[in-house]
Amino acid sequence: MKYLDYMRRLFGTALSFAVFGIAGLIMGLLLFPLLFVFLRDDLARQRVARRIIGRAFAAFVWLMKILGVMSYEIVGRENTETGPNHLIVANHPTLIDVVFLVSMFPDADCVIKEAVTRNPFMRSTVMAANYISNNACDDLLDSCVVRLKKGSSLLLFPEGTRTVPGRPIEFKPGAATVAVRTSARVLPIAISCAPLFLTKDEPWYTVPATRPHFVIRIMPPVSLRDLVPGQQDQRHARHAMNDALRSLITSGLTDASVRSGATRTGTLSQLS
Amino acid sequence: MNKEQLFLKIREILVNQFDVEESTVSMSANLYEELKIDSIDAVDLLVQLKELTGEKIAPEKFREVRTIGDVLDALTTL
Fold first, then answer.
1. Could you tell me if A47 lies within 8 Å of chain B, comparing CB atoms?
2. Residue A61 neighbours by CB under 8 Å, 6+ apart
3. Are residues A238 and A176 in contact, defined by beta-carbon separation less than 8 angstroms?
4. Helix A234-252 with B39-53: angle, nearest 10 deg
5. How confident is the model at residue A260 (pLDDT cuts 50, 70, 90)?
6. Total structural domains within chain A
7. Using a CB-CB distance cutoff of 8 angstroms, which residues of chain A are in contact with residue B41?
8. The CATH number of the domain where A42 resides is what?
């Protein structure tokens, strides 16, 4: 039975990614180029493109769940009600975190790897959605600040890349800098996944022995003033903000996730 | 400027501007882990070192720097 379950999830993972790839290709080569032809207004095109991406990502989450690849629960949805102008900050344990978050917050701005923005298959998608490219590091923080001040939400993974399994979460200072410079309300999200899969150091086909369960905990929004009391210069505020965000998100992780972070993902050999 | 002078200068910058305890500054001290310097601070430090020596450390090279000794090596092998 265990073996069957494992094979089912391995097959489900392969199928999910195949569907994702094919759908992404059709969108990138056909749907989004068409959007450029028929929707001349940048903002209207951006809105439609993000809605499409949000729906597609929601469908992908649904597919993975239906196929039994993973299960998930979203906790704290009521915390998103305070408005659309949040700096959304999350930890980044797995490959599909961004898929969850974009399906939950389709209108938010995201930062995209420069390599992706130049990939001919994904270029039109990223361009239509008008996401932020991380090519010019000096401008990146400025772009983030400008976008947030315009009134939309911005989604950042302060770790900059996926968490190294077993190591404590560490945040690069970018997200804290944006928080300090904009005084935006921060919506912290703690993503737990146990047993871990789709991590930084394992390929997609390393499927754990039991079905992974995600807990996506949306925490109550916090402001700079809540986390960094008193008047401080930008540098001290940034350091304090970074520490505060890291401990806040770490505190929101499930115990199981913190524990499973200490060991590598299970493999087939562990089943027998 | 020789290595010794450079070290003293870097220590002075770290203590005065980045709240680093003078006693913790040594050649083997890790900037990011022990001295609580983040990458934005590191860029600041880089700019100041550039003004000090008139030489440029390539950002790619600075990215590999971990300890104060590494900073000095990067500066003196120019």
1. no
2. A72, A96, A99, A100, A103
3. yes
4. 150
5. low
6. 1
7. 235
8. 3.40.1130
- A258 CB-contact burial (10 Å; exposed 0-12 / middle 13-18 / buried 19+): middle
Instruction: Report pLDDT for A267.
Output: 43
Out of B18, B36, B40, the one facing A177 most closely (by C-beta) is B40
Residue A95 to residues A162, A165, A212: CA-CA distances in angstroms? 7, 13, 13
Whether ipTM exceeds 0.85: no
Judge contact between B46 and B63, C-beta under 8 A.
no
On whether the CB atoms of residues A144 and A112 are closer than 8 A, the answer is: no
- Cβ neighbour number for residue A110 with a 10 Å cutoff: 21
Distance (Å, whole) CA A238 – CA A247: 14
Residue in chain A lying closest to B41 (CA): A235
Which residues of chain B does A172 touch, with a Cβ-Cβ cutoff of 8 Å? 38-39
- Least confident span in A5-19, A81-95, A179-193, B35-49: B35-49
Strand A213-218 and strand A154-156: pairing? unpaired
CB atoms under 10 Å from CB of B52, counted, come to: 15
Contact between B36 and A239 using a beta-carbon 8 Å cutoff: yes
Q: Which domains are seen in chain B, by residue range?
A: 3-76 (1.10.1200.10)
- When scoring A142, A235, A236, A243 by the number of chain B Cβ atoms within 10 A, the one with the most, hence best to mutate, is A235
Of B18, B36, B39, the CB nearest to A172: B39
